[in-house]
Every structure is written in structure tokens, then in C-alpha cells.
Amino acid sequence: MEKPRIQVDCNELVQPDVVLLSKTDLVIDATSASVLLSEGLPVFVYEYNCYADGTEEYLFAEGNAELNDVAANGEWSKPAKWCCRIHDNGVRVEIT
């Protein structure tokens, strides 16, 4: 089974290896499939940016879903229920 591909905002990295994932248990992935998040679910997270000069930037990582720990991630992360704990290879960037 392929990992769900979930769009995130990489500006919402709350720790070097944790990004906010969702405010709800149910998310829609890149294929428009509904995904029910659960503790430890393997996910692929990504962000796509296209700049005025035509440059396209892809940021992506693999990790596992985990419940947001507001005490560890900061009070500003409180609206998010879920985070993604990014694997050791971190967030990768591809620019075209």
C-alpha cells in the first residue's frame, strides 16, 4: 500500500523533524482520497511553490503521523491535532 501524500506548509516546522499535519483526523491526500490519520501512520508530506520567475520548488519528506504535543511544539501549534515526525533523511528540496 502506498503512503498517503499529504500537503503541508513547511513553514510550520515546530521542531527540526516535526511539521504540523492536520487540524482533523480526516485529510484529503494528493489523489483526492480520504485518509484517516492514526498514530504511527506512514505518510509522505510535500509542499509545492511556484515563484514569479517561473522557478518551481518541491519540498518533501517521509515520516509518521503523531498526535500534536503542544507542550513540546509550542502553544501556537495548538490548533493542529496531528503532526508528522520526519524520518532521518529530513526535508528534501528540489528546484526546477
Radius of gyration: 13 Å
Low-pLDDT ranges: none
Strand count, sense and closure of the main sheet? 7 strands, mixed
Shape, per Cα inertia axes: globular
Strand-residue proportion? over 45%
Q: What structural class results from the helix and strand content?
A: mainly beta
**Average predicted local confidence, pLDDT:** 95
Order of helices and strands: EEEEEEEHEE
**Helical proportion, percent range:** under 10%
Number of strands: 9
> What is the count of distinct domains?
1
Q: Please report the number of helical segments.
A: 1
Measure the end-to-end span. Answer: 29 Å
Q: How would you describe the overall organization of this protein?
A:
With 96 residues, this protein is mainly beta. It has one domain (5-95). 4% of the residues lie in helices and 49% in strands. It contains one helix and nine strands. It has one helix spanning 70-73, and strands spanning 5-7, 13-15, 18-22, 26-28, 34-36, 42-50, 56-67, 82-86, 92-95. The strands form two sheets. Strands 1, 2, 3, 6, 7, 8 and 9 form a seven-stranded mixed beta sheet that branches. A two-stranded antiparallel sheet has the order 4-5. A hairpin with a 2-residue loop joins β2 and β3 (18-22). The longest helix has 4 residues, at 70-73. It is globular. The termini are far apart. The model has no long low-confidence stretch (mean pLDDT 95).
Ordered list of secondary-structure elements with their pairings:
Blueprint: E1 5-7, E2 13-15, E3 18-22, E4 26-28, E5 34-36, E6 42-50, E7 56-67, H1 70-73, E8 82-86, E9 92-95
Parallel strand pairs: 1-6
Antiparallel strand pairs: 2-3, 3-8, 4-5, 6-7, 7-8, 7-9
